[in-house]
Amino acid sequence: MAALIKQRRVVSESAPSPDARVIRLEPTDDPATVADQLGGVARVEVNFPKFGDGRGFSIGRLLRERYGYKGELRAVGHITRDHLFFMESIGFDAFELREGEDPHEALAAFHDFSESYQASFLRPQPLFRRRTQ
Question: Cα(33)–Cα(49) distance, rounded to whole angstroms?
Fold first, then answer.
């Protein structure tokens, strides 16, 4: 079974409630098509089918910023340690690691960078602002 990280902790997941709604988006899906359904959803899963496919990053950011999704946003598929810091910065809060990925080693990814210069979901203002004259 693949490891799951939520809120920067390794967790084991129990079976979801039969009433829980889960939406899974593929890289080719437009998040606008599910925007009106997000209110009653337990979680949204965004699939990353391969390492070099970054469309899921855009989907996650749109769900958080444009559509105001506040629930669990889970990255699934080809998720590795290298993705975690950047995924969290755009709003993902749960990560289903690939089979064989060490979840405790993956947790260290959240501390790989001490600062992020870009604005993000977690910090809406960039670290440095250019002064205008």
Answer: 20
